[in-house]
Amino acid sequence: MSGSGLSRSFGGFVAAAHRAGELVVQPRMGMSNPTTMRSGLIATKRAAATTVGTITLDSYTRMGHDAKARAALDSRAELNGYPIVAHDAATTRAVVDGVADLGFPVQVRHGSPCPENIVRASLAAGLHATEGGPVSYCLPYSRAPLAESIRNWTRCCQILADVRGNGVEPHLESFGGCMLGQLCPPSLLIAMSVLECLFFRQHGVRSVSLSYAQQTSPDQDREAVLALRRLAAELLPDMDWHVVIYAYMGVYPRTTGGASALLAEAARLAVRTGAPRLIVKTTAEAHRIPTIADNVNALETAAAAAADERRQPMADPVSDTGIYAEARALVSAVLDLRPDIGRALADAFRLGYLDVPYCLHPDNAGRTRARIDGSGRLNWSDIGSMPIRDVVGPRTAVELTSTELLASLSYVERKFDDASIAEYLFGARTDGVPELKEAT
Amino acid sequence: MTASAHQLSVVVSGVSSDSHTWNLVYLRLAIEELGHQVRNLGACVPDELLVQECLTGRPDLIVLSTVNGHGFIDGMRLIARIRACPELATTPVVIGGMLGISGPDGQRSHDRLIAAGYTAVFDDGPRMPAFRSFVEALAVGVTA
């Protein structure tokens, strides 16, 4: 890649940081007020870490309710993100002017199944890195028909692809590694990320990232990210791609110690698996919308944990429990349906070949279930019609009770909060086993 | 469910701006475990769809759950639309979750939601025991 191509490319920046041995860390951050949004970007840029900036949009803009967002701005009501469509292009350009530059790319994060106006508003402000996907921004976050989201995202990819040139390489990150944040087993997260990036490629995008959200077991997550990299290398050989890790996206620990330890675990996962970018969560996550200071704190905590992990001896290799084979089977089954990946995705959901556990969207079959086993790994308890029976083996389908569902949803929160409280009370380490003998 | 209690038909729904669904998955299981029938409309339900579903199904209880912080604004708008339908003028409607009404003005916002037509408001905090009691009371015909 040429020097100028590298310099105005989100993917190029991440690759350069990775070669330099630095983990790129990134916040989730969006404020409705342009001045505050700009302060947030400046604080992210100045943090003691290798960072990229984020403008996260509000839920009205995500849903395409721009009039509601405008009305909220007029009445000076606070929104839960930056309404990039309601603000005019000049306002957004002023937010990023002199902040977003060659050494500090800024990505727009939204969550919309109808992102055309968002992408156009971003490009008008000079922002050409964004994220989402036809499935990952439809099923969990809307009730828009999947077919409609696929059409919208096709157009969105083409709009992005059209701005390539003059040293600009638009970047699109698949949100497929999240899918409701919890209780979706790794193989389906991997398959979704890979399939969405194949969809982006089919519609002209050349620089992508594949996401994976930290789940319940560090060993299982390591195996999963390595499987994701292997599949991406096989299926996207002609693309600029990288893996981005999301710090845990489910119910977050309430204690400061627990929240920091979970974030540090995510940073270690990124370093051990060679994933070059991490999106952080803050210690305020369980309590309120994080402040700018909370975010800076999280970025620096993650960067320090990553630097520390690089000084540790190489971790033991992970054993293969079949995550790669499951993910590969899911991807192949979808690609075999039709050459057009958008249509193949729609068919796959209709047939239940892809089926996100606990997802209420009308186009999701809703026949799969997952549970956390005794060793903390996330496994299928019901695979529905997904074509992985040969790989997974027979399962006894069990429906969780509401109490068990809550216990599963709060498994990570309890594990890290209990460990943090144990450390506070007994001076035990964060493995969660308090040294009662010394304490009593 | 006690012997004298009725089986309620309950609509569980998110609101138009809120994409969260775990709260809805949980509420469905919790209400079913109390012995009632649930129709779960899911997340991001447009106002018109919610009203239409309730006019068609005539539920005994409408449960709105929202956790994205816009709950007060969305909740005020929705209850006006629901109560504007004569068929739904007296249907019990509750709202809960993280409504964004904690803090010093919380009680005032709570009171405004009730005044606007909600039968009960289960605002920020661990309110499931209170919600369960509400549903149980409703099922034996002792609405609060």
Structure description:
The complex is a heterodimer of chains A (440) and B (144). Helix content of chain A is 46%, strand content 12%. In chain A, 55% of the residues are buried. Chain A has helices at 3-7, 10-19, 34-46, 59-62, 66-74, 89-96, 116-124, 146-162, 186-202, 218-235, 256-273, 292-310, 323-335, 341-351, 389-392, 402-409, 411-426, 436-439; strands at residues 8-9, 24-26, 50-51, 53-56, 106-109, 129-132, 168-169, 171-174, 207-213, 240-246, 277-279, 369-372, 378-382. Chain B is of the alpha/beta class and 144 residues long. Chain B has a domain at 33-123: 3-Layer(aba) Sandwich (Rossmann fold), CATH 3.40.50.280. Chain B has a five-stranded parallel β-sheet, with helices on both faces. Classes of the chains: A alpha/beta (440), B alpha/beta (144). The interface between A and B is medium-sized, with 28 and 21 residues.
Distance between the termini of chain B: 18 Å
Structural class by sheet pairing and helices of chain B: alpha/beta
The portion of residues assigned to helices of chain B is 40-55%
Q: Tell me the name of the CATH homologous superfamily of chain A.
A: Methylmalonyl-CoA mutase
Compose a concise summary of this entry:
The complex is a heterodimer of chains A (440) and B (144). By secondary structure, chain A is an alpha/beta fold.
